[in-house]
Specification:
Strand content: over 45%
Number of strands: 12
CATH architecture: Roll
Number of domains: 1
Radius of gyration: 16 Å
CATH superfamily: Electron Transport, Fmn-binding Protein, Chain A
Order of helices and strands: HEEEEEHEHEEEEEE
């Protein structure tokens, strides 16, 4: 019989990138590390994020109707840990602003999104975001997560 621990272990065997989701509502900005992120459609340009029902971020996105997805570089492990609650901040985090949304500076990619659709599934809410603007940084490598640990990809020549 499969239990929660076995399922979590199995899912950790899928290497993912690391993102910070950010949203602002009534002047309050909140960020959250997430690796449950994927591209959904090119036309229209849609992405999907998965947020736990009890997470503060879910309420922020539902209230604001907007959010950013920030794909982290390997130099941003500390930022990931901060927004995952694994590291304490020594001073308040300073978000940049792009397309009227808070973003993580120096990210590989920052996507500005409006909520296109919402689905409640199990213990998470799936937000389908309509990407209306983006920034790309071609001068860094991705931060990855595998088997419960941060990893750096080793790129080999073709």
């Amino acid at each position: 019989m499969m239990d929660d621990h076995q399922f979590r272990t199995a899912m950790s065997k899928f290497a993912t990138g690391v993102t910070v989701i950010a949203a602002e509502h009534d002047g309050h900005i909140h960020g959250m590390t997430a690796n449950a992120f994927m591209s959904v459609s090119l036309d229209p340009k849609l992405i999907l994020i998965s947020i736990g029902h009890h997470a503060k971020m879910r309420k922020m996105i539902e209230s604001s109707g907007t959010f950013s997805v920030n794909v982290l570089s390997r130099e941003q492990k500390d930022t990931s840990m901060l927004f995952a609650g694994q590291k304490q901040a020594t001073h308040p985090y300073s978000f940049n602003t792009f397309a009227n949304l808070p973003i993580v500076q120096e990210s590989l990619v920052s996507l500005a999104c409006t909520v296109h659709n919402t689905h409640r599934e199990g213990d998470h809410t799936l937000f389908v975001g309509n990407v209306y603007n983006l920034l790309i940084n071609d001068h860094a490598e991705p931060l990855t997560f595998y088997n419960g640990h941060y990893k750096n990809l080793q790129f080999e020549g073709v």
